[in-house]
Amino acid sequence: MKGLLSIFLIVGVLGAIALGIFVLGNKEFDSTRFGASVVPLELSESTLTPEPEPQPQPQPQPLVSPSSPITVKIQPLSVQPGQSITITIAADKDLSSPLILVNVSLASPSSSKAIRASIVNIDGDGNRFGSIDIPADAEKGTWRIQIIEIDDRAGVVNLYTYGQGISATFTVL
Question: What is the pTM of this model?
Answer without folding.
Answer: 0.58
